[in-house]
Amino acid sequence: MADNVFFKALEAHTVWKIRLRNYLDGSSQENLDPDVVCLDNQCSLGKWIYSEGQNYQDMGAYEQLRTVHADFHRCAADIIRKADAGQAAEAEQIFRSTYVSLSRNITKLLVSMHSQTKDSDVA
Fold first, then answer.
1. What is the pLDDT at residue 123?
2. pLDDT digits (tens, 9 = 90+) for 70-81
3. CA 45 to CA 102: how far, in whole Å?
4. At what angle do helices 2-25 and 60-84 cross, to 10 degrees?
5. CA-based angle 88:68:44, to the nearest 5?
6. Cα pseudo-dihedral 64, 82, 94, 68, rounded to 10
7. How many Å apart are CA 96 and CA 65, to the nearest integer?
8. Is the pLDDT of residue 46 over 60?
9. Which of 19, 16, 32 is nearest to 103 (CA)?
10. How many CA atoms are closer than 13 Å to the CA of 102, on its beta-carbon side?
11. Contacts 24+ apart (CB under 8 A), 59-62
C-alpha cells in the first residue's frame, strides 16, 4: 500500500514539472495563473500532503516535504510571472537552478519517506 501512495505522489510531482517546462517552452496550451500556482494545496501532491500524507507526519521528512513543496510552488509562480512579463531568460535561469533544486529535494524526501515505511514494515 505505501509503495503505491509514494509512487502516486512522485508521479504527481513529475507531471507538474512537465507542465511548467512546457509552459516555458511555449508548447503548452495552458494559461497558468501564478496566483493559483503559488498555492501549495491545489496540485495533486499538495492535496495528498494535506490529507492522506498527514498519516506520515510523525516522520521527520514530512514537515520538510511540506515546507519544500510550498517553496517549490512559490518558485514556480515566480517563474510564471517572469515568463509572462517577457523575462524569459530570468525565468529559465530560476527554473534551471532554484526550481530544479527544490524539485530534487521533493523527490529525495518522498523516497526517504517511502524507505522509512519499508523499514518499519520489516521491523
1. 42
2. 999 999 999 999
3. 14
4. 20
5. 85
6. 0
7. 20
8. yes
9. 16
10. 20
11. 59/113, 59/116, 61/109, 61/112, 61/113, 61/116, 62/113
CB-based contact 28:19 (threshold 8 Å): yes
Q: Considering only CA atoms, which of 2, 106, 94 is closest in space to residue 64?
A: 106
Nearest alpha carbon to residue 52 among 13, 8, 17, 16: 8
For residue 120, pLDDT over 70 is answered with: no
- Which amino acid type is present at position 12? A
Q: Which residues of 2-29 are buried (b: 16+ CB within 10 A; e: fewer)?
A: eeebbeebbebbeebbebbeebbeeeee
Task: Supply the pTM of this predicted model.
Answer: 0.88
Helix or strand holding residue 61 (H, E): helix 60-84
62 vs 112: CA distance, rounded Å: 10
As a CATH number, domain 2-122 is 1.20.120
Compare 121 and 16 and report the one with higher pLDDT.
16
Q: Categorise residue 27: left if φ over 0, alpha if ψ from -120 to 50, beta otherwise.
A: alpha
